[in-house]
Design goal:
201 residues, mainly alpha, Four Helix Bundle (Hemerythrin (Met), subunit A)
């Protein structure tokens, strides 16, 4: 089994910036303002939900391309989860403002995201070694990225809006639970990363 830390084995190109995976991630980021325009500028909930769903659904594309094309880079390792978090936070805040998601659910999502994001910044400032997103974290992010577009679609005039609302809860509740499980899982990982960072210095 390959060691994920073996840069040579995985073809990691740490000094490369212009790669296909990074390009996909940048495109996903550039679509965020388009989503905001559709939702608040045109008040087109269904179209905004479809675009947000597309941005969330393509989350796996950059990672797949990185492995498939041997274009795993240090920039990509930072840019990809940052893009996921930004997409999620912008989507959550926007849909809360729109009123298409229950306030408690939106606040619970934001509290976790802000706490994890702030902790990551503090750890970086303290010199902790970078660590990857856990399996629970990926599952939580996936569930939430699917549920929020469905909340929006469920409050639109689209055909099958009621089914979208059901789907929002089916993906949203497990996604929220998994996201908090991953937050708890990060505590010992963060301690170890900080310890290794101090030892390296």
């Amino acid at each position: 089994m390959l060691d994920p830390r073996d840069d040579t084995t995985l073809g990691i190109t740490e000094d490369r910036i212009l790669t296909w995976p990074n390009a996909v991630t940048v495109v996903r980021l550039l679509l965020i303002p388009v989503f905001l325009y559709l939702l608040f500028g045109l008040e087109a909930r269904w179209e905004a939900a479809a675009l947000l769903g597309l941005i969330g659904a393509t989350d796996w594309v950059d990672g797949y391309l990185a492995r498939r094309l041997d274009q795993i880079s240090e920039l990509g390792k930072v840019l990809d989860p940052t893009a996921d978090r930004l997409v999620l936070v912008v989507g959550v805040v926007s849909i809360i403002i729109d009123g298409s998601v229950p306030l408690w659910f939106g606040v619970a999502t934001l509290v976790r995201e802000v706490a994890v994001g702030a902790t990551a910044i503090v750890l970086a400032l303290l010199g902790a070694r970078r660590f990857d997103v856990t399996w629970w974290g990926k599952c939580g992010t996936f569930g939430l990225l699917v549920s929020y577009p469905m909340f929006l679609a469920g409050n639109s005039s689209a055909f099958g809006a009621d089914l979208f609302m059901i789907g929002a809860w089916v993906f949203g509740i497990p996604g929220l639970i998994f996201s908090y499980l991953s937050a708890a899982e990060y505590i010992p990982i963060a301690r170890d990363a900080l310890k290794r960072g101090r030892v390296a210095r």
